[in-house]
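Write out this protein's structure.
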Amino acid sequence: MIRALMTAASGMKAQQMQIDTIANNIANANTAGFKKSELSFRALLYQTYEEPGAPTAQNQRRPIGLQVGTGTEVAGSDKIFEQGALEPTSNAFGVGIQGEGFFRVKVPSGEVRYTRDGNFHRDRDGQLVTSEGYVLDPPVTIPNEAFSITIGGDGIVTVQTSEDGQPQQLSSISLYRFPNPGGLKAQGGNYFSESASSGTATQGTPGTNGTGIMRQRYTERSNVAVVDELVGLILAQRNYEVNSRAIRASDEMLQQTNQLIR
């Protein structure tokens, strides 16, 4: 019965983390480029009373064993990089990715980060930057006299300096892919960094070799389906409740045992 208390407690801890994860997904349902997380669970060690196949008599063996589990724990958190819906925006520098790939930006420390949030702006120096002011890497500089800007599906940036002027190609925006994007380390602010699990980033041209294409004047919404998250929240809540009932039942059994000696 003491083991039942600890086993049920492990289930409550696991469901609490599940609820925390779902709450974070729901909170970021309107965050541009956000990717939802899903937890995976694994069973804890088993206590073995009888080994499967243990001998019971001459030339006879147990067809099954006797093992009792000790609970569950969270095995890991998976980032789900499914495509989010592309939403039109009035921002001429907003770029959505349709397909695989990440933008790369440089943070003040000199390190690079990767993001799916393409809601860029032009700073005072004409460079394309994120909402936090992080410069796109490689940098793209828009001249002050630019009359219009066009970002093609292949990432090539062209501008016109007058209404009847000829388009001028400035540079191109690259996308980066990883062997295992699920292994990226979330850094907050919609940014990710490389890890030993994700592998090294590979620079690619949008629209080639499986790399996604760019959509100007679009931003990618999060891939959180609120209805699915609410269903998962209800299931986690019920599982938490059932585990708490198991603790209550074990406590009542212990109470009955204590009363036997009175």
